[in-house]
Write a structure and sequence with these properties.
The protein is α/β, with parallel strands linked by helices. It contains four helices and eleven strands.
């Protein structure tokens, strides 16, 4: 015979796992629907360009310099390219937008976190700099197609310190090739969806100064 206490404990054990699984499935399903929403019909990374920017910003495989480490990311702030270095001496190149003016922060970072359709909260500096734009989101904004972090985000750290710099998708793909963000590196959502699973936690992200050109030989 079960006591009331035993029944409650048993009931919790029976129902907690399925409920968690249901919530996880619902979230995954929503992410899949959003992925489809931001990916062009018949998507071919090398040619699909409903956004209308220059074709050089489409994903392209190029020859990499021999001294670069596979798995690393390099951001060429001059040409507005992100390179993901491959094991075979090549790199996948993507078009990006970088930060406005002095908000761009070159440096060597490590990717310590990855997230799909992440929640976004503007920093205090962003709110102070442009309160009309950011103050309304001081408590954060849930993930979704209109969220400034877009479909995926790679979180850049220095040691154990979160720099609040991200490589992320953007709901403003026409900004690619320009200087538009408040510090982060922006990518087309469909492009970063393809890149995301290729990136390992602990990989390096090198954001090169806007005065130098790096990474590719072609």
């Amino acid at each position: 015979m079960f006591t009331k206490r035993q029944f409650l404990i048993t009931s919790a054990a029976l129902f907690s796992a399925p409920l968690a699984s249901t919530a996880e499935a619902a979230t995954t399903g929503q992410w899949a629907r959003w992925d489809a929403q931001v990916t062009p019909a018949g998507y071919d990374p090398s040619v699909s360009n409903p956004w209308g920017f220059h074709s050089r910003f489409l994903p392209t495989r190029v020859e990499a310099r021999s001294n670069l480490t596979p798995g690393d990311i390099h951001v060429d702030a001059v040409a507005r390219y992100l390179y993901h270095i491959q094991n075979d001496g090549t790199a996948m190149r993507y078009g990006v937008a970088i930060a406005r003016g002095r908000l761009y922060e070159p440096g060597n970072y490590s990717i310590r976190r990855k997230a799909k359709w992440p929640r976004w909260t503007p920093t205090g500096d962003m709110i102070a700099r442009d309160p009309q734009l950011y103050a309304q989101h001081a408590d954060g904004m849930d993930g979704g197609p209109s969220n400034p972090l877009g479909a995926r985000a790679l979180y850049l750290y220095t040691g154990n310190r979160d720099t609040y710099l991200r490589i992320h998708g953007t709901p403003h793909p026409r900004s690619i090739g320009g200087r538009a963000s408040s510090g982060c590196v922006r990518m087309v959502m469909a492009h970063i969806i393809g890149l995301y699973d290729q990136i390992s936690i602990g990989s390096r992200a090198i954001l090169h100064p806007a005065e130098t050109v790096v990474a590719a030989q072609s």
